Amino acid sequence: MDIKSLNEKQKDAVLNVGGPMLVFAGAGSGKTRVLTYKIAYLIEEIGMLPSNILAVTFTNKAAQEMKTRVHDLVDVDIHGITIGTFHSIGAMILRKEVWNLGWDSNFTIYDSSDSKALVKTIIKDLNLDLKMYDPKSTMIKISIAKNSMQTPEKLMSDSKNINEETIAQIYLEYNKQLKSNNSLDFDDLLVKPIEIFNSFPEILKKYQDKFRYILVDEYQDTNKPQFEFIKLLSKLNQDVFAVGDDDQSIYGWRGADISNILNFQNTYEKSKILKLEQNYRSTQNILNAAWAVVSRNKNRADKKLWTDNDSGDKIKLISAYNERDEALRIIKDISNIKDTKRESYNKFLILYRTNAQSRAIEDALIKNGILYNVVGGVKFYDRKEVKDVLAYLRLIINPNDRISFDRIINFPARGIGKTTIDKIHNLVDSDNIIDGLMKIDDLNIGKKQTHSIKLFCKMIKIYSERFDKELASIVIKDFLDEINLKEFYKNQNTGEAEDRWSNIEECISGIVEYENSSNNPSLSGYLEEVSLFTDIDSLNDTHDKITMMTIHSSKGLEFDYVYIAGLEKGLFPIERLFEDENIEEERRLFYVALTRSQKRVVLSYAKSRRRFGGEPIPASRSRFINEIPDELLDNPVYESFNRSGSNYNDKLESDCDLRKGQVVIHKIFGKGRIERIDGVGVNSKITILFFNNTRKKLIYKYANLEVVK
DNA sequence: CTAAGTCACCTTTTT
DNA sequence: GGTGACTTAG
Prior knowledge:
Elements: H1 8-15, E1 21-25, H2 31-44, E2 53-57, H3 60-73, E3 82-85, H4 86-97, E4 108-110, H5 112-125, H6 135-147, H7 152-158, H8 162-180, E5 183-185, H9 186-199, H10 201-210, E6 213-216, H11 224-233, E7 240-244, H12 259-262, H13 264-267, E8 272-276, H14 284-294, E9 316-320, H15 323-341, E10 348-352, H16 358-367, E11 372-374, H17 384-397, H18 402-408, H19 418-427, H20 433-439, H21 447-469, H22 472-482, H23 485-492, H24 495-517, H25 523-531, E12 546-550, E13 559-564, H26 583-594, E14 597-606, E15 608-610, E16 616-618, H27 623-626, H28 651-654, E17 663-666, E18 670-678, E19 685-690, E20 695-699, H29 700-703, E21 706-707
Parallel strand pairs: 1-7, 1-8, 2-3, 2-6, 4-5, 6-7, 9-14, 10-12, 10-13, 11-12, 13-14
Antiparallel strand pairs: 15-16, 17-18, 17-21, 18-19, 19-20
Helix pairs in contact: 1-2, 2-3, 4-9, 5-6, 5-8, 6-8, 7-8, 9-10, 9-11, 14-26, 15-16, 17-18, 17-21, 17-24, 20-21, 22-24, 23-24
The structure holds a DNA duplex.
């Protein structure tokens, strides 16, 4: 490894070993380089075993990248090193140790929709009003309690009224059922390891001895259990290397506590503090703008980024008529830069505050035939059809999992309705629902239903044995054949069903991919990977596509050209209805957005915006625009408004005009051929004969047709 | 019990 | 504009 390529501060951070250390690493200051060099240094120069190193990152993708980069830096085999997210490391520890708390190691990880489903059944079982205790907000309350490490008992004794008491009661029951389902939720992955460490000192000691040196990335976004986890593990050796930037703390709403980083020295006595303040990423103008914004915050550590880079382009402001116009103007600007500077689409990033904003932009990109990549939003593994298949796999691995059982006992339909399912739940008292059902001869339900249930259970049993012995990707195909899933979708004969089946096929290729990339593949390993997978993990910015995502997802990334859309009052900074508005966190979010850019930032806002597909609501520009000094803006007063931007007759639009005879895809009706077009422009009526032999007359601007080339 | 249709709610941000 | 929960006719 070549230490000479680091600047003085970075060298300090890398070479200083022994005792706790906190590095304030500003945006673009070479934080990842420091972390990878530090690990390389520990291994190559200090002689530490890779297996004694623990590195925590914020995403799986970051973990993977870090592994590869360390691998490239050292000559030693780094196979034994542990790099992962808090959640994946928690899951890893729990697979080994959670039997101490009464779970089986094949536990299922519930995502938020599973947790919500479980909360809902509990509210129903307790005969509570679903309006009063709505599953979603109850689940959020439980999650907040877990993340502040409050037990149901504590919540119960602290409760001031019957309402709070009931929440505590639901929480208690929720935990009980998680256990009998042999399942853990996301929060448990952080909290349960701590519970084990506190109850079994010898287990804690084992991990303290294993993880001699601990590195934590994005320390500003740690919450209470994460803070506690690191503190416990490092207690013996006091070798913690934390890297973060309080200005980029944007997960307060999820329990992240900025004081973890601001009070590092109180937690770890005799710790060293270092600041990386040279920015290698952005232009002077971008940094100045970012500074003007973030320096308004009161609750922050004292530091200031500087750069040797050129001043660069000024920040451009786009003022649009509405959200569709905003999208068009952004696309125009991108095409303009692409043509004049000969850039490819993968240099461009479009950011927004809420996922819902992506739709208008996506529509415009599709109409103009520009390829794009959207991160987040409706996630692949959250799609109904994919979740159904995963529920089968989860039940096969873990027959205690009633949430998955409920999901698929009657999918595809096998004559088991609500009444039957209720009876099953009342009759089967063993945690293992499959074994329980096999034992009972008379379920007090119809002959047909009994027969159907027995068949179902036998099938699950048979496949559970097969999955033990054979490769998952092979067994799953047989399994899907057996339940006739392909026919189920094919018989519906709609484009939508066809999409659903192709998603399932994609899911199967995901299993194959997993088996090829993992050195010890198993079905449960696959399921764990899938539960902890986030969209950002699969981001591929080498394709020639524009990338779009929320600002939250963009943390840690960099792009040449960054567009921040929807800078409007109420949208960004977002208006909170019931909570105090956390303007400082919103401002940090804006800071994160600005500092993603290497060359040029464009801010945009619309004068009216539709929400929930309803009527357009007038909007005004965000206060954040005013927080950037005029001299850093290209067009401070905002460009004079003319309607040409919102007309659809410019070059961009004409590229995708429809013609008779073309084959198009409609999201619901599927593929079809255009028979005739009446009228011109966005209001024209298009007659299409769809391939399922239905004929529809659609209006161009609403139909959202995609042309098949 | 099933399938198709209607309705309400939704939108902060995510592991 | 899209999803999931609930309703109603077979």
